[in-house]
Amino acid sequence: MMKFVGLIILFLMVACQLTPTKVYETQPVTEKSGQEIPAGTIIIDARPAFEYSLAHLNGALPMRWEDFTQREEPFLGVLDIDQFFHARRLARLGIKQDSPVLVVGRGLQGEGEEGRLAWTLRVLGMKNVSFAHIDSFSLPLTKSEAPPRENVSIWRPTFDESLIITREEFLTSIMKAKGTFEAPVVIDVRTEAQYLGKDSNYYSLHAPDLGAVNIPWTEFLTREGRANTQIKDRLQSVGIDPNKKIICLDEKGVRSATVTLILRELGYPKATNFAGGYMLLMGKR
Question: What is the C-alpha separation between 27 and 7, in angstroms, rounded?
Fold first, then answer.
């Protein structure tokens, strides 16, 4: 009898030490329009960590655009030199270079985080990347942990240099082509108040000699956080046609990255982003 009791106690002790089995939700993600996100799409949540922890789309992975950049002024927004390190990190998360990826964020209520992250992935050579406002998808959201993804083979980035312009290239193209037909169009995508230096919450960075056109980034987005096709009329009204080289600019290259991808989607293949923004251009410290 004592042996039997002892076995029961031993069984209970071992059972208490077992790690509980994790249960992951597998509900499909659909847009409010009723369209279901294609199977195999990797959802990345670019919102701040606190907001992600409160609620996120089923299976979404948290990731920040800052993870891929340098962290000190005036280089905030400038991509890390070793992007192969980040490609390896993506591979460990089960993300391949040809993986379909949807980046979600706060849309017009945010600062363009999802667009900047999508732009970064595109710069790394990932072609099938889109972004949208998280509120454009069906609720409810979840607090459940995303299921682990199997590692994929390490891949090396194929840097898309057409999406990015360096400080030296920026200044050279502006100075050499100034006043000519070949001169690029510079679009300052900050709000009008920021552009005019009237917003005390932002750096008052404005270089009039660039001849920048101010079109706030919010005009390029719909409420769903996708490309606003009507912006093409505004661009045409200020003389910007699809054949022109366009340099998008803001303080750190975040909202301007969003606008760059939207312009590409709308048929402006020469749109590019100055990732360092005014902070790098003017050496703001």
Answer: 42
